[in-house]
From TrEMBL:
Keyword rRNA-binding on entry: no
The entry's keywords: Oxidoreductase
SUPFAM superfamilies membership: NAD(P)-binding Rossmann-fold domains
Recorded superkingdom: Eukaryota
Protein's UniProt name: Oxidoreductase
Family annotation (InterPro entries): NAD(P)-bd_dom_sf, SDR_fam
Organism from which the protein derives: Zasmidium cellare
Family statement: Belongs to the short-chain dehydrogenases/reductases (SDR) family.
Keyword Nucleotidyltransferase: no
Pfam families with a match to the protein in the record: adh_short
Length: 339
């Protein structure tokens, strides 16, 4: 292990001035939003998903927006803001618990009962560095279940309505740079029922799975003859997001210590800088709306631009065989085959 320690590494000390806000991105690409139906998970007030929803409604004029979250009262302020800025958009709350397959199936059925076409799906919901080990209702580690597996099921259940809008539909799966911490090992996602649990390793597993999911989904859709717009997107470090509500004060120390178990040293360019809550949805919105990204389907988007496979820091998130095995494992876990 290298002598370099977490304390020696600068992280998140300055704003990135060249990252636009969510409303600025939507304003530039408003034509891609007009009259569309949009589904967003993770839309509680104070979240990146909520900020994306507000920006899309105020600056893009969609037809319908489905805001998915566990608790309606936490989404109510978001809906109120949207109605004040754009009374014409149909904004609909749908209850969704990504740790519960029954809830996911019910949510998907509710959306499909209200629209036969979905133009944009943004999977924003997630949890971040929960210190205590926990499993979903179906026995899957909480980060993997919430951030990845639940969205795997939701996305595939909504797929008929997305296929109906091709070639215009886009799917954005939120990820982050957390995938660089450690390799995704499919046989250890439950950490021996918590005996070997480490929150940063669990988060990294889920994050890598999100990147690989977008990659494999794009490949499978192309194989079926559908032109796709599937991307994973890193929003950057947004400390004001409610995603950070459960973080311990020394959380980054644990991240670097876990990183150094699998790497010789921390890279010089690991500092992502700090983004405001308004800037948080910028990169995912670019992935959802910017026509320049056409032709790069399945790729990872960070700092507002596509990262080619050769520029990815870690090999496991561009491993097509691992992506295939992950998809098949996901199908086994949810008990249903897709595509």
């Amino acid at each position: 292990m290298a002598a370099q320690t977490a304390e020696a590494v600068k992280y998140g000390t300055e704003f990135l001035k060249d990252i636009p806000t969510g409303p600025e991105v939507v304003e530039r690409h408003s034509g891609a939003v007009k009259d569309t139906n949009i589904v967003i998970s993770g839309t509680s007030e104070g979240s990146i998903g909520a900020e994306a929803a507000k920006a899309l409604a105020a600056n893009g004029r969609p037809a319908k927006m489905f805001l998915l979250a566990r608790t309606e009262s936490k989404v109510a302020p978001v809906i109120e803001t949207i109605k004040k800025t754009n009374y014409s958009v149909g904004v609909i709350f749908v209850q969704l618990d990504l740790m519960d397959f029954d809830s996911i199936r019910k949510a998907a059925a509710s959306v499909l009962a209200q629209t036969s076409q979905i133009h944009i799906l943004m999977n924003f919901a997630g949890i971040f560095i929960r210190p205590e080990y926990a499993q979903s209702k179906h026995g899957v580690e909480q980060h993997f279940a919430t951030n990845h597996l639940g969205h795997f099921l939701l996305t595939n259940l909504l797929m008929p309505a997305m296929i109906a809008t091709w070639p215009h539909a886009r799917i954005v799966q939120l990820s982050s740079s957390g995938h660089i911490i450690c390799p995704l090992r499919l046989d250890t996602i439950n950490f021996d029922d918590g005996k070997t649990y480490h929150p940063w390793e669990a988060y990294s597993h889920a994050d890598s799975a999100c990147v690989l999911f977008a990659r494999e989904l794009s490949r499978r859709l192309k194989a079926k003859g559908f032109k796709t717009g599937v991307f994973s997107a890193n929003p950057g470090f947004v400390p004001d997001s409610n995603l950070n509500n459960h973080l311990p004060p020394d959380h980054m120390k644990g991240a670097f210590e876990k990183y150094l178990e699998f790497h010789e040293s921390v890279p010089d360019d690991i500092d992502e800088g700090v983004l405001s809550l308004e800037q948080g949805p910028a990169t995912p919105l670019i992935a959802a709306l910017d026509s320049v990204l056409a032709g790069w389907e399945g790729k990872y988007v960070s700092d507002g631009k596509v990262v080619d496979d050769g520029e990815m820091k870690e090999s496991w998130v561009v491993d097509d065989e691992l992506a295939r095995r992950l998809w098949e494992m996901d199908e086994d876990l949810v008990g249903e085959k897709f595509l």
